[in-house]
Amino acid sequence: xxxxxxxxxxxxxQASPQLLFQYLATPSGLSEWFADNVNSRGERFTFIWEGxxxxxxxxxxxxxxxxxxxxxxxxxxxxxxxxxxxxxxTKDVSxxxxxxxxxxxxxxxxxxxxNQVSDLKQILGST
Length: 127
Known about the structure:
Blueprint: E1 4-13, H1 17-25, H2 27-33, E2 37-41, E3 44-49, E4 52-62, E5 66-71, E6 80-86, E7 93-102, H3 106-124
Antiparallel strand pairs: 1-7, 2-3, 3-4, 4-5, 5-6, 6-7
Helix pairs in contact: 1-2
């Protein structure tokens, strides 16, 4: 299996950390922008896109700060994390994404996140 490359992208979001966290950590919130439908049973989240299901485990979460998931099919240490960062001076809120992709899929993965977060911003009314 090819070695995956870790990447990080940051998006400025005009929303409170509390509101944003609901869209990152709950099945109903994730269903609004990340997948067509999301179900959870404990730490196990099932993401559904156009009839295809992918299961991820919730590895860590800290209310109003971050969530970290790992896809069940991964046999490596990769994960994806959505972290809320608030600038201490300006109070600007950013969504910081950490994910892993194979080298030849890096740009595609970044574009996918950009598109997904664009949907999230639209839902939140953040430009």
